[in-house]
Amino acid sequence: MTSTLDNTTAETAADLVAGFPFPFLEDRYRYSTNVEPAEQPVTTPAGQWGTAVVDIDSEYRAELDQRAVTLAADPTRHAVLPHMVPAAWDAMFTLMRELDAAYPEQMQLRSTGPDEWLWRNDILGIEQHFRYGDATTLPDEPLRYITSQVQEDIALLDQRNDQLFVDAGVVTFAADWSFGFDVGMSFLEIHGPVPRVRKEGVITRAHEFLKRLQPHQPYRRTNWTLTIDRRLDVSTEIYPEWGPDRESIQLVDDAEFGRRVHLRVEVQHLIRLPDSGAVMFLIRTYMLPLEQLATVDPWRRRAAEVLAELPEDMADYKGIIKYRDRAAQWLRDAAPTPPAPTGPGLPVWPATPPAVDTTGAAFLVVAVGDDAETAHVSRNWVAAAEAVGATRLLVLDTLTDEQDRASLHDALDEALTGTRILVTGGQYDVLTALAIAREAGAVPAELSSHVVHLRDLPLYCAHCRNTFRVEGRAGGTATCPGCSRDLEIHEHHSPTMGSFLASAAGGDA
Q1: How would you label 61-72 residue by residue, b for 16+ Cβ within 10 Å and e otherwise?
Q2: Of 54, 125, 217, 297, which is the most exposed, with the fewest CB atoms less than 10 Å away?
Q3: Which one of 77, 221, 420, 469 is the catalytic residue?
Q4: CA–CA separation, 351 vs 26, rounded Å?
Q5: CA triple 499-392-338, angle to 5 deg
């Protein structure tokens, strides 16, 4: 949550990355209801999102201005069927309460008497006295009034005859659909064109879940696609304005492609309104260009895998079929360049895991440690290897443990000639495992590795002639766990021993 909410985008681009709700939990994506309780913060490699139901960021004023322009040009983006007037008041009041709770320094809702209220929005300089339910006390219809102060789109669903109907809303930032066309349709009818969801039962489960929602128990889910440029309004009504971009983006150079193609994520909050009983669908749209997404390396790698694996019918429905392969390759090519070695004989670790050598006769994947990235890398290796030949996954805690070392020795003894050995974990464990594998007879062509962190290394003390696990780096210093000397860690590594040379700091014996 920013302390000043009206800064320009140039000054606060960092908050858009830090608060971005990256949507992929795995390296593949399929339609699902994927609902979870709301107001639970989600920590990401870049920051955090999800603390509040309504979210204000540095794009607040700009997005509200865009909404006002869109509504002025196309009034069909706002609709409230007559029976939904009480729900519109309920939605406005609920959102005012949420804003007051999330941003108490800038937003306040105070009671001034029976059904009398004072609403303040200090960011926009608004002070409004109103009587709940009395349209003459607001400058606009309640739903339109509150959507001029939140970045979320709103759809209100009425429940009758055991079905939900979209009977009210303000939707100016639709992603390739038409709110004006859908008003009055049932939830099931609106989602009819989505591939796979009916066959797999996703939409039916979602419908049943929404009907069971209770007041004061908000839920949320995410949805995503790709968008060309930072264009919030990609609704069906204005397709001629943005549709041709799907063709022209294929002709631009890589730098422009990375700037213009955005990962577009919707965080959808699902709320049963307490007074009217209507279901409120809040749709908050976030966009991040690929060039910024790639600065968060776990996001870059996972988004590339999701796009490359996405089935064609899903990519076609999302409207990204023509350029998704290029987007996946762009993200793969954006891998950070590993730093050059700073001294002789230092190992160079690639920024991304190497591909599985599919010419192997069999595969041994060794995952050491509890780092989440270790599990992620080993899981991908196993999936690729199993498609080719016999594969074994060996999971170890640490190679400082004699039992774990023995397990690795046993696995190497059982490996056939031509087995490809893939090792991932922290630097100490990877270097140690590779040295053990070489000692067991493995040749360089059979070995692959990926280091997930450089916090530690294997240190060979020239004085007590033992190898230890220490936290440090080549060129730094450490205390020898064996002889207690202060050691200088030399920029000199032995693949055979699997360790860095260290000697007394300052030359003292």
Answers
A1: eebbebbeebbe
A2: 125
A3: 221
A4: 19
A5: 40
Q: Domain check: are 367 and 495 in the same one?
A: no
- Rounded Cα distance, 261 and 121, in Å: 34
Residue 464 burial (C-beta neighbours within 10 Å; 0-12, 13-18, 19+): middle
Q: List the structure tokens of 323.
A: 């350029």
Kind and range of the H or E run holding 12: helix 9-18
- How many domains in the chain? 3
Residue 142: how many other CB atoms lie within 10 Å: 23
Asked whether residue 182 is assigned to any structural domain, the reply reads yes
Are 378 and 392 in contact, with CB atoms under 8 Å apart?
no
Among 250, 258, 230, smallest CA distance to 331 is for: 258
CA-closest candidate to residue 183, choices 171, 175, 195: 171
What's the CATH number where 508 sits? 2.20.28
- Whether 221 is a known active-site residue: answer yes
Are 379 and 234 found together in one domain?
Answer: no
Answer yes or no: do 186 and 58 share one domain. yes
Domain identity same for 26 and 174: yes
Tell me the average pLDDT across 276-281: 96
Amino acid type, 288: L
Q: C-alpha dihedral over 123, 126, 131, 134, to 10 degrees?
A: -110
Residue 107 — pLDDT band, cuts 50, 70, 90?
A: very high
pTM here is 0.69
CB neighbour burial string for 11-23, b if at least 16 within 10 angstroms, e if fewer: ebeebbbbbbbbb
Q: Is residue 84 assigned to a domain?
A: yes
Residue corresponding to tokens 């989602």:
191
Residue 502 lies in a domain: yes
Name the one residue in this structure whose structure tokens are 């209770």: 214
Measuring CA to CA, which residue among 176, 122, 110 is closest to residue 5? Answer: 122
CB atoms within 10 A of CB 85: 17
Tell me which residue range forms the domain holding 468: 455-509
Max distance between CA atoms of the chain, in angstroms, equals 89
pLDDT, mean over the chain: 89
pLDDT at 8 over 50: no
Residue length, the chain? Answer: 509
- The reply to whether 223 and 372 lie within a common domain is no
Residue 237 lies inside a defined structural domain of this protein: yes
Q: Strand, helix or coil at 195?
A: coil
What's phi and psi for 110, nearest 5 deg?
-130, 140
